[in-house]
Amino acid sequence: MQKVFSAILIIGFIFTPAFLRGDFSIIEKGKGATVLILPAEKNEELKKVTDWFVGELEKCSSVKLPVTTNYTGSGNRIIFRVVKRDFIRRSLYTVDFPDKFSMQITGSTLGIRYALNHLLEKAGIVYVFPGKEGAYYPKVTKLSLPRVKQEKDAAFTIYRSQHITDEAWQLALNCELRDSRMLLNHGIDRIFPLSKYGKGEWVNKILPVRYGKRDLKVKRYQWEPCYSNPATAEEAIKNISAYFEKYPDTPTFSLVINDGYNYYCQCKECEVANAGTRTTSLEPGIANRSNVYYKWVNKVAKAIGKKYPDKILGVVAYNCVKNPPSFNIEPNVNVSIACEAYALSDPEMRKKLMEFYRIWSEKASSVGIWEYAYGMPAYTLPRVYFKYAAEQVRFFAANKGRTAFIENSANIGQGPLAYLFLKLFYDPSIDVEKTLDAWYVAAVGREAATALKKYYEFWNNFWDGAAKKSSWYQTTKKNIYFGLMADGSYHYAVKKGDSSYCRLLMEEVVAKADKYGDAGQKKRARYLMKAFEFYEASMILNGDGLLDISGSIRSRKEALELAKALPRILQAAEKRSEIAREIVAEFPAWWGSMYQVYRKSFIKKYGTSQLPSAVFALLPYLNDKEIQKEFQTSLQKINITPEMKAILQKLSDFSSGKLSNMIPDGSFEKDGINNWMPAADRMTDKENFLKGKQSASFRLRTLYGAQRVTSSIPGKAGNYLFAVYVKIPADYPPYGIKASCSMVPRRDNGNSMTYYMPPQFDVVPGKWTLLYTFSHVPEKAVTTSLMITFKGMKEGDRVWVDDAVFLPMGKLPVKKQIAPPVEKAAPIHASSPFAKWSFVNYKQNSRKGELVRGDEKGNLVLDTRKEAFRFFLPESIPAKKGDKIRITFRGKGNKSLSYGAWEYEGVSWKNTNVLRKIAYMKKEEELFTVVFTVAKENTGCVRLFLAPEKGGEFFISSYKVEKIK
Length: 965
Description:
Elements: E1 23-28, E2 31-32, E3 34-37, H1 44-61, E4 67-68, E5 76-82, E6 93-99, E7 102-107, H2 109-122, E8 126-127, E9 135-136, E10 143-146, E11 150-152, E12 159-162, H3 167-172, H4 188-191, H5 194-197, H6 203-206, E13 209-210, E14 213-214, H7 230-246, E15 252-254, H8 268-273, E16 278-279, E17 287-288, H9 290-307, E18 312-317, E19 333-339, H10 347-363, E20 366-372, H11 386-397, E21 401-407, H12 417-426, H13 432-444, H14 446-463, H15 471-476, H16 498-516, H17 519-541, H18 556-564, H19 566-586, H20 597-606, H21 625-637, H22 642-655, E22 676-677, E23 682-685, E24 695-699, E25 701-703, E26 706-714, E27 718-727, E28 738-746, E29 761-762, E30 769-777, E31 783-791, E32 798-808, E33 838-839, H23 848-851, E34 852-854, E35 860-863, E36 871-872, E37 877-878, E38 884-893, E39 897-905, E40 908-918, E41 926-933, E42 941-948, E43 953-964
C-alpha cells in the first residue's frame, strides 16, 4: 500500500497548451538564458534570497544571471510573486508558466527560497556538510525545468531543524534554524523565573512539595512546579499572554518541562490529579506524571487559544510526562516525542514504540519527533542507522507529524546521517538509497564514492547487527535514548579485521578523491579520514576484536594474545589523544556545533592520554607467570609516559596483593559487612571464603530493577580500580548468570556524575569469579557508590562476596591543547558607523576579527559564540542633562542584546545607563528605536555601547544616532 503524506503537495500535471510544452531554459550552452525580475515594490528579504541563488548558480556555471525590476526584453524571465502566508503554510511555493517566456514563483520569501533551492538541486549542487567547504558545485552548462506546474510544501510544517547547526546549511536543505526554546525546549523556567516565583507569596503556590515538605532549594532546570495549584495555570496564562502582547509576531511558545529525573511535586492534590503514583510503560524506573501535567497544559492552552487562536504551544513527551494522558490534548498544542529511531532495530521495542506513537497521534492534533541522533563525541564509532531514520520519519509524517528535530553534535564522522534526516523532514518520500548515493558522490567524487558507500554500509550493518548483542544495547534500548557512552561495550561487537577493512576503504577514498576529485572533495575526504583514524584508534584501544561480547577473555591462550597486543593497544590510546587535538585544531568551526562548549568537552574527554579498558581483561590472568612475563615485556617495548607505566604496573601489583585498599575491611575479616547493603539478612560466612578466614554473605534485594549489593565511600577525584570476587550457589544452572561491579560518583544531592557500562562476567556456580571495572571519579564528587550487580538471579537468592578492593591508580598527564581554528572575518568597512568602535576589555581588541566583522555594505556582525563582550564607541558625544538622544538600527539575531550609552562627567566614568534589553532578537530583521534623556547632573558626554549576550550571532545595520529636540 502506498503511503500518502498529506503535508506534501507532490508535483502535479495540468493541461498544458502546445505552445508551452518543452523545457524552460535557465542556462543554455554555458550562457544565461533567463532574467530574474523582482517586484517593483522594494523587498530586501527577497533581494537577499535571489542574490544568494544567483551567487550559488554562478559557482557551478560561471554565469551570473541578471536581476532587475524593469525588464522589457523578449527572452525568458523568472518573475516572483510574494504573498503573505500564515505560519503553518510559510514554506508552500508554486511554480507555474503563465506564458511562453515566463516562469512565475509564488510564495512567501521563505517559500520562494525553497523553490530556488529546487532549481539548485536540479543543477546538481549538493550541500554535503555545513560551511564554505561543505558544498559540491558541479560544472553546469545547461539548466532547464519542464514547463509543468509544481506546488510543494514541507511535510513537517511547524518546525524542522538540527540542534545548534549552521543556519545557511539548514536553509539550503529546506529547513530553518528556529529558536527551539520557543517551541520544544525546556520552558518552565522561562514561564516561572525563580527570581520571582522562588520566594514570597509564590512559595506555597508554585514550588513543589518533595518528600512531605515544600522544596525551598529548587535550582534552575532541576524542578517542576505544583501543576495542581490553580495559581500555576493562572500565572502561566498571564505571563504567556504578556509575551505575545510584547512579541505579536512570535508564533509559538514552549510549555516543556525542565530537565532531570523525578523532580515532580508530591503534594496530595497533585497525586489526586495524577490518579496516583504510576510508572511509565517503557521505562519502569521513571514516574509517570502525565495526567497532572497535561491537565495543566490543557488549561493553559485553552485560555491562550481563546485570546490568540493562531499561536501554537509546544510540549515534549519526555521523562515523567512521556506517556499519553488518559484524555485528549487541546488542538493548539503540539507534542514532540522524545525518541531514537535506532530503537526500532529491536523487534520488541519496535512493537511497543509504534503502538506508543500511534496512541499519541490519537490524543494530540499534531505530534513530532525529538530525535537523539548522537555520534561523536558521545560515541567512539561512526553511528548511522539510515533505514530506521527513514522509517520513523515516514511514520510520523503519515500520522499528524508537524515538528521534526535532531538533538546531536554536528560532526563529520557520521557522514550523511544528519543530511538524510533533514532531507526527510522536508520530503519523507525521497528515495533513501539514491539520496545517499548522491551524497557520497558529492562528498568525495564519483570514483571515490563506491568505497565511501561500502564504509558507511559496513557501519550501518554493524549497528543493525553485531552491536545489538552488546550489554550497551540490551540495557539501554528501553531508555528515552540509548546510553551516550564513549568506549561503550558496543566496541566488544567489533571483530578481528574490522578496523583493517575500514582502513582499506578509507585509504581508497582518500587516494581516489586526491586523484579525481575537486578541491572540496579532496578536503572532505581528508576530514572523513581524520574522523576514521579517531574511530580506528578507539577500536584498537578497546581490544579490536580480541575480547568477547562481554568484554572478557575466556582462556589462557586469549590472555597471552592480548598481552602480546599491549604495545599496539597502548600506542592507539596515545594516538587517539593526538588525533582528538588535531580534530579540534583542523576541523571547520561548525564541527561539534556552533556552541564552542562541545569542542571544549570533546578535547577534555579525548585530548589527554587514557588507559585502555582492554588492559583490564588481563587481571584474572596476571598470576600466570608466562602472561605476567609477556605483560612486563610489553611494558618495556612501548614508549609511554611514566604516569601510564605506573598505572599499568599497579595492575601487576594488584594481582600479587601489594596495594593498599580504600575499602575498610574489604576482606570481611572484622566488621566490614556493616558497610554494605542490603541491611537485611547479611552475615559473615566461615565456610565459604577465598582468603583469610571468612567472606560476606547476602540475600539479594531488587534495586531499580536489578539485584544488587552496594556500599559507599567518600568521593575523591582520580582514576580507580574496583575489583571483587563473588560466588553463587553450586546448584545453580551452569549458564546464564552474569555479574558486574561498578562505581558511581555522586554529588551532594545524590545524583550520579558519570554513566558507563562496566564489563559483565559469566559467573560459574560454586566457584569464585573476579569482577572488575576501571573508571574516573570527577571533581566535586562527595561519595562514590560501589555496586555489585547480578543478572539472572532472583530477589532473596544468596551470594558470597570476598576481597573487595578500591584502588587509586594515579593520574594521567594532561597534554597541551591545540588552539581551535579561527575563521578569518572581513574587517569592518571604513565607512561603517562602527569603524572606530572598540572593546571594553582591551585584551579582546587583539582578536577583533574573531568577535566582530563587517560586510561590503558596512553592516556589523557580533559573534559571541565563544565569549561575551561589550563593544563601544570611544569617541564621546557632547551631552548635558536634559538632552535627548535617539538611537535607531535594524537587527536580527538569536540571543538577547543590551544597547545604550554610558554617561560621563568630562572624560571620567560616572554611570552606566542601559536603555533597553531586547529579550530575543528574531531571525527576521526588525527596526529598533529608543529615545533617552540624559539624566545625571554634571554630565559632559555620553559614549554608546552594544552588549550582546554570550552564545549567539547578531546582525546590525542602518545604525544612526542623533540629538533631537
